[in-house]
Automatic annotation (TrEMBL):
The protein, known as: DUF2141 domain-containing protein
InterPro entries for this protein: DUF2141 (IPR018673)
A family per Pfam: DUF2141
Organism annotation: Neolewinella marina
């Protein structure tokens, strides 16, 4: 195969296989103002289970509403998980039973508050410039 033809085929493959980054705007809404909001994005069930996120963002939550902009690697299925750190320790606090004591939420409502959700239960399909709303709630509000 000639060098030019090889280069041409390689270029075409790159154009069709190369992922297109997706710009996502995430609206975080909470019933409580203050603290800091942390957002993590997962692209697989394995990553979600291991807390191996592909994108993250955080910001002060001065009001009960905040916008975060993310750049995701490609269109696809993602879990967007957020929590509001009210006491400033950098983690989602839990009680002795493992129940979160600070507001948290997902891009899609989990089907049950009695167990951790599976990837497919809270996943959001991202296919272009998106605007996703996450409502942070205390466990008892789910």
């Amino acid at each position: 195969m000639s060098c030019f033809l090889h280069y041409l085929l390689s270029s075409l493959i790159f154009l069709f296989v190369n992922p297109t980054p997706q710009q996502v705007s995430v609206e975080i809404v909470s019933t409580v103002a203050g603290g800091k909001v942390y957002l993590a994005v997962y692209d697989s069930a394995e990553g979600f289970a291991r807390d191996a996120y592909v994108a993250d963002a955080h910001a002060a939550m001065g009001a009960a509403h905040h916008e975060l902009d993310l750049r995701l690697p490609d269109a696809g299925d993602y879990v967007l998980a957020a929590y509001q750190d009210l006491n400033g320790n950098g983690e989602l606090d839990r009680n002795l039973l493992g129940i979160p004591t600070e507001p948290y939420g997902f891009g899609k409502l989990p089907p049950s508050k009695w167990r951790a959700p599976a990837f497919g239960e809270v996943m959001t399909r991202v296919s272009g410039a998106e605007r996703i709303r996450i409502e942070l709630r205390h466990w008892k509000e789910y």
